[in-house]
Amino acid sequence: MLELAILGLLDERPMHGYELRKRLSEMLGTVRTVSFGSLYPTLRRLQHQGDIVEDSSAATATRPPATARRGRKTYRITTRGKETLAALLDEPGTSSFTDDGFGVHLAFFDRTPGPARVRLLEGRRRVLEERREGQRDAAARTGPTELRYARQLTLLGLETSERELRWINELIRTENPSQGEPQ
């Protein structure tokens, strides 16, 4: 998912590592932070694969002079990187349905082909339905007075899953009005 996020952001404009990390944190929220220890190896791997290159001409153009520093590498996406990005957006894997994976894909839904968006939404719906069933079972196992706060936490998770399922079903209807909700 980190490769998808990096390629998607670099498709917008060239950026240096610090700026990428900041944008990734904004995109992924405070729940998941991207460390420099995972960002830079991924950048090197993408560079080695030919998906991105260092862009020395953009190094100063993308930063205000007050924050410009020597040694910061600015990266830009290549034609091969654009093809890789398109393939990642078009063929979501099972990790795309998880909380982190779905969030990254959702950030680039405008660039994701319609059929792939529907596959992503349907896959996410399956994950949420399984989660909801587990939460229902857990809520049924504890009575209203025993483990009161643990039960409240389970009920909050159940409510959150049900709310996201309603939202997902609405997105699926928007993408494909004949699809609707599952039986």
Automatic annotation (TrEMBL):
InterPro entries from the UniProt entry: Metal_resp_DNA-bind_regulator, Tscrpt_reg_PadR_N, WH-like_DNA-bd_sf, WH_DNA-bd_sf
Organism domain of life: Bacteria
Name of protein: PadR family transcriptional regulator
Species whose genome carries this gene: Dietzia lutea
One Pfam family named in its UniProt record: PadR
Gene3D superfamilies: Winged helix-like DNA-binding domain superfamily/Winged helix DNA-binding domain
Record domain Transcription regulator PadR N-terminal: where: 6-86
